[in-house]
Amino acid sequence: MPNGMARGARAPRHEVMIMKPVLLSWITACLLGGAGTAIAAEPPKDDGARLYARHCAACHQAGGEGVPGRFPPHRGHVGELYAAEGDPEGRRYLARVLLHGLTGPIQVDGVRYDGNMPAWGGALSDAQIAAVLNYLLTGLDPAQVPPRGFHPYTAEEIAALGEAELSGRDVHALRRGLVGFGEATPGFAETAGGAPDEASVLPRQAAFPTPAYVALQNSGLVTSLPSGTAWPGVPGAHYNALSPDGTQLLVSGFKTGDVYVMDARSGELTATLSIGAVAQGVKIAPDGRHGLAVAPGQGIVAVIDLGAGELVKKVPVGEEPHNAVFTADGSRAYVTLQGGGAIAVIDMARLEKVDEIPTPGLDTPHNLDLSEDGQRLWIRDFLGRVGVLDLKRRALVETFAVGNGHGGIDVVPGGRYVATGAIADSTVTVIDAQRMEVVAEVEVGSGPHGVRASRDGRYLYVSITADDTLAVIDTETLEVVQQVPAGGAFPFWIAVPGNP
User: Do 215 and 169 reside in the same domain of the chain?
Assistant: First the structure.
């Protein structure tokens, strides 16, 4: 990787674990980039091919051959799974992987993978899940003969299977019941990764000088930690943002085309705004007046008047935008264009896109944060890299190899560290922003995604999607000092006072 750092070169004094080969699971963790299609109508016949080409081929390759040691092959393997006997049989198992996710070690062609695939039930439509499965089994390889007895999956079949409440670990256990695959499926280690040592455990209240608000995607809740207060009313609560005065939350719903405004003190929903498609990232301006909701399916950023609870304007920004960040004075907003390999720039006075900065070498910019001096954007991509964009030079000045899959990114207050998660891995990568080098890979648990530090920069909060917990890292020791139950399923994003 140009300008990157090899994992073996990382400073050992803070290193907790060498990264293991990771499974971005074997069907379509990459589909997250297409979340805007979650409320689409019944797909056309070729929709499975389109979804695979757009969202899966980057990891598993266009022909499904995979990348040895990182992304396992689909070609041949999926058909073998379909034909497997057991309880459940392979057909139902494949559907459950998409519906409920897969967490834990497996082997494919003798290679061990140990990772986390998010659940897609409710995030993708039943028809879309059926379309992807049918394409994998009948269209991925032109020479492939459908498995004996194959008949196409239907939306109705997927809906019926989706009624069960299973976790990714439950699905891993089901794999062990497949004849010919169970004996090659390793079990979990007896001790969970990321659990703090007894001597390093910090009292829970001390780890939260102010509340942390967690969006729980699969429970439709927002929780306030450490109290554990849970607020319902946001189907598929996905990304969230907190107003500067700490009184309002803006939350995107992964199961609807709506964005929600919530009172951060009572949990009362004060506004529900339809933007016409599923939103991903949300952000609130430094003056608290406007909120932004990014809609990749429409290629727009929706501007919301938070005081009035009204949609002001949809600003076209480019192909598949994903998240946004404001400058300190709120005059501009930077937006990742995951489908365009660039950063869009919005003038907030005119509410118009005024610039686009390419990110060559970082093709799928996903999440981002701005350095405290406003000179550099730290960009997390979809596949396991971080890039540093110098805004004056309009050039990437550094890239880093980080954990597999996508994740959040945070410039920790104080400016010393930048931290990023990795949903298809189990570590948080910590980068020294001044020395421009990775200084730690902190083991936290399966599927870390959201990352946000406390206002003073002392504690880093990490949402662990597969374990349904929030890990707390002490930034002085770079060790996990707390694992807190998130209060629901699939904690995705975190909002913290004083660190927008």
Answer: no
